[in-house]
Amino acid sequence: MRAVYLVSGGVSKFTKARHDKTFQGIVKEAVDYTVNDLGIEYKNFLELTDGSVASYFSDHFQRQLMSGIMAQDYLGLCPKPSHRVEGGGATGGLAFQEGYKAIASGYMDLCCVYGFETMSHVETWKGNEFIALASDVSFDFPVGGFYSGYYAMMVVRHMKEFGTTVEQMAHVSVKNHRNAYHNPYAQKRQKLTIEDVRQSTMVAWPLTRLDICVMSDGAASVVLASEEGVRKLEKASGQTLPKVKVTGIGRGTDAMRMSDRPHKKVPLLSFEKEADYKNLKYPGIHSFRAGRSAASEAYKNAGIKNPMEELDFVELHDAYTSSEIQTYEDLGLCRYGEGGEMATSGKTFMPGIDYGMKLKEKPVCPVNPSGGLIACGHPVGATGLMQAVFALWQLQGTIAKHFKDEALQVKGAKRGLIHSHAGTGTYVTVSILEAA
Amino acid sequence: MKKKFIDRIREMKGGEILEPVIFPDSLDSLKTMAPIIIKQPYAIDYIHSYGQDSPWFAGLANKKLLGTKCCKCGYVFATPKLSCMECGAECDWVELPQEGRIHSFTVCHFGAEAFLDQCPFILGLIEFEGADTLLLTRLVGPNPNEANLKWVGMKVKAEFVQKPECKPTDVYFVPV
To answer: Which CATH code is given to the segment(s) A5-122+217-237?
Structure first.
């Protein structure tokens, strides 16, 4: 397989509703950003790019089939090859990896991956219904199932199994909203307290409104390149590109219905022992087996043994505060059962930011320095790519340039992880990025 | 007979412009125009077959709670699967006990649009003796405003609605 580089990225502002543009126009904003940052003319970009991947989740929200090709033609990328990728919340992460494969396999030298979602086309509770259709419509949706309810049931079991508390979950909300305060592309930039989170409207016990990400309109895009592709871009722009290498990808899956999840043994990461989990039945509904599978595959490819020590930051799929805690464990940032403590320890916070509370330990590996889904918003098809863009800027050391604020720059970041997650943990992707 | 062609688009009946559409004198200022937003209603009846899972719904209509059991490895599914997730062999229908325990739950204070008028309601995942997987169902009885972790492990039993609709809500669970 050939080396794959992430060379540029761009986002549109994520916001509740973008009535000023159609989805094609919003995608163009993100791609324009990506091309401008490469320092080449748009026409140059069209000549050099070999093809693309379109990332979007729901045909229901759009009420338009084949939106992908409408973005492709609006971008001027026809007649180059392209395909659409869909995998629920992990759509962006999957699309990123499809771009990776196109380069690694030698099929393309330059691949543009663009993602979008326009969720403002329907009212919030209709939107919740559309998203709930991404659960079994024979057995789960008709009982009254919807996503916040599913995640609530999963964290109730996590609380029962490991003693995780709602206050620990609230720490994640405070951290991510506070981080986003310095991210101009985020939808919700708020300074909150633990009390604010707990006193917010209850949606599905024990999850409140501030434990849950919001629907959003937005787009994001990246350009992936082979060494040859990088040379072409550098020749066209007349400058050296601050590129990032994709050193590992991993994926996993699990059953659509939570009720079907098995109760077996934990697949161990290299620092774990079987004795750590003597009485734990895994994954049940408390953990995401797909996340563990994706992480172990990616770590194997990238040669990572102890993720907490070897990663400088993580951008993970915090659709819920609870799922950030669960994902700490799947990714091996701590052992299963230690996620709640990890959330309050301070280890996953940013240095130099005042969160308005006392934290026991110093930051080790900031998680969701961008603000994550909870604060940035979750325009599904764009989300996983947004993480790739923010991770690229971290590793380039260009956060200050893009955010007009250096508070969120992880100093000297060399290696980061992005994590994209669908359904109740049905598709999960993990990709490792390193400064090249 | 000669068909009469319509030579102009008929004005839509019932159409209504909510805001006056303003058009500027100069084309140069069109890019700053406010977007025109229209409403498009969308309703449809889906023809949904339960296919190989149909007997489960027939069971509910007859006050029976069915599951499936793998004929090779013996894995028992409390929510039916006719192909075993563990070994790929075919499963047979079996009757499940009508008593189980709450494995996990939530109280939904909001929900998908179709269920908003029923909030707050309780969702629970039920575990059964001898079954390897769970069943998602409605829990009726506990006070939704008194949700607490002690509900996990609570013994519950199946109740069946009087007028079955061939939906998974034909069964619900109540504390024993």
So the answer is: 3.40.47.10
